[in-house]
Amino acid sequence: MPKTIVTPPGTGKPIAPFSPGTLADGVLYVSGTLPFDKDNTVVHVGDASAQTRHVLEIIKSVIETAGGTMDDVTFNHIFLTDWANYAAMNAVYAEYFPGEKPARYCIQCGLVKPDALVEIASIAHIGKA
């Protein structure tokens, strides 16, 4: 099955061997997204709300580059470093998914950079009836 790598304009070099998104047969897989700037520096240190917003804006840019919208998201994988940030993440998350919510799971775990509080990976179905 052919696949297309999806990289929004202006995306920095990933810190590991992966692509921001991969589109195959109308399904877009968005890699785990951390609150990084173009130089892979964690932004909004200590602010789970701002980090969640930053992560979801990056995910949105990958989805839009592939020709979709956030309404096309069907599943999110959410990783938090501390359950104390759950309410803050959910408040921002609800802004990006105001209607019917995608399926998801959320776990607490360590992340690749200690200052990162949240990571999200997404699956979106784009352009298939």
Automatic annotation (TrEMBL):
Molecular functions (GO terms): deaminase activity
Gene Ontology cellular-component terms listed: cytosol
Signal peptide location: none
Key words, A-Z: Hydrolase
A GO biological process held by the record: nitrogen utilization
Keyword Hydrolase: yes
A Pfam family it matches: Ribonuc_L-PSP
Catalytic activity, as annotated: (Z)-3-aminoacrylate + H2O + H(+) = 3-oxopropanoate + NH4(+)
EC number(s) stated in the UniProt entry for this protein: 3.5.-.-
Superkingdom of the source species: Bacteria
The protein's role, per its UniProt record: Involved in pyrimidine catabolism. Catalyzes the deamination of 3-aminoacrylate to malonic semialdehyde, a reaction that can also occur spontaneously. RutC may facilitate the reaction and modulate the metabolic fitness, rather than catalyzing essential functions.
NCBIfam families: RutC (TIGR03610)
HAMAP family linked: RutC (MF_00831)
UniProt family annotation: Belongs to the RutC family.
Name this polypeptide is given: 3-aminoacrylate deaminase RutC
Upper taxonomic lineage: Bacteria, Pseudomonadati, Pseudomonadota, Alphaproteobacteria, Hyphomicrobiales
